[in-house]
Design goal:
Distance between the termini: 34 Å
Low-confidence stretches: none
Strand content: under 5%
Pfam families: BacA
Number of strands: 0
Family: Belongs to the UppP family.
Oligomer: single chain
Number of helices: 11
Keywords: Antibiotic resistance, Cell membrane, Cell shape, Cell wall biogenesis/degradation, Hydrolase, Membrane, Peptidoglycan synthesis, Transmembrane, Transmembrane helix
Protein name: Undecaprenyl-diphosphatase
Radius of gyration: 19 Å
Main location: membrane
Structural class: mainly alpha
């Protein structure tokens, strides 16, 4: 593994970690770094190995969520381990069943339309459109929250099954690459009456089972590409993604109640415009 390979693994892990859970679309950002960097890593050798690497670094990001929400995740099954972000008070209404209800729509929709999504939506044009449409949904959510006489919304421990299911429906929109799962679900949560922070917490908690399950299944299918020569490259990317995802999540959770979604929406629109100019200028 060359020094350049290490740099590529670090940068790709950084991009994955910083964008996977922020409402800015990790897909849009990975398109950029894929074209600029991933193909230049000599150690990867083939598209199959490169795709395996993407799964590995995504697992690093998921591990960061597990660490940040450690106590809250245990509390879903009635075990109080205490002391971390999202700790639930005695009598919490948030249960594992709320998470399951929130996940069901996307699971069903994903299986039903998997071929359509893979065939028609994984294109630069559709990703750019999703970045912009998702931005308007985020702006709408912020606007709606300001129209309720400054009512801050429900907390995470006040979430109902109806709210969980409706947020799950919003998550279905995020199957459109570029829309952003966190952007869709946080916006949906705010529109359903949750505080911005509560909607973000629920989004991250839902991410653990659905992303871990999908990544694990994908990784098992790609085990043949986990050869000894690429494992150091994968480890560097995994650790980089974990560290930067942990930083990103803690930073985002500290900010979301203060700045809401508008700054992220503006950033997405600017990103879409820049990507569009670059893409269509080289066609």
């Amino acid at each position: 593994m060359t020094v350049w390979d290490i740099i590529v693994a670090l940068i790709l892990g950084l991009v994955e970690g910083l964008t996977e859970f922020a409402p800015v679309s990790s897909t849009g950002h990975m398109i950029i770094v894929d074209d600029m960097l991933l193909k230049s890593a000599e150690i990867l050798g083939s598209p199959e190995v490169a795709n395996t690497f993407k799964v590995v670094i995504q697992l690093g990001s998921i591990l960061a969520v597990v660490i940040v929400f450690w106590s809250r995740l245990w509390s879903l099954v009635g075990i109080n381990v205490g002391g971390a972000v999202g700790k639930s008070p005695s009598g919490s209404r948030l249960k594992l069943t709320h998470v399951i209800v929130g996940l069901l729509p996307a699971v069903v929709f994903g299986f039903a339309f998997e071929n359509f999504i893979d065939t028609y939506l994984f294109r630069i044009e559709t990703v750019l459109l999703a970045l912009i449409v998702g931005s308007f949904l985020m702006i709408l959510a912020d606007w709606k929250s300001k129209q309720t006489n400054h009512y801050e919304g429900a907390s995470l421990d006040e979430i109902t099954y109806k709210q969980a299911f409706l947020i799950g429906l919003f998550q279905c929109i995020a199957l459109w690459p570029g829309f952003s799962r966190s952007g869709a679900t946080i916006s949906g949560g705010v529109l359903m009456g949750l505080k911005h922070r509560a909607a973000a917490d629920f989004t991250f908690i839902m991410a653990v089972p659905i992303m871990f399950g999908a990544s694990l299944v994908s990784l098992v299918k790609k085990l043949d590409f986990m050869t000894a020569d690429v494992i150091p490259f994968f480890i560097v990317g995994f650790v980089s993604a974990f560290v930067f995802a942990w930083i990103s999540i803690r930073f985002f959770l500290a900010l979301i109640s203060k700045i809401k979604l508008l700054p992220f929406a503006i950033y997405r629109i600017v990103l879409a415009v820049v990507l569009g100019i670059v893409y269509f200028s080289v066609m």
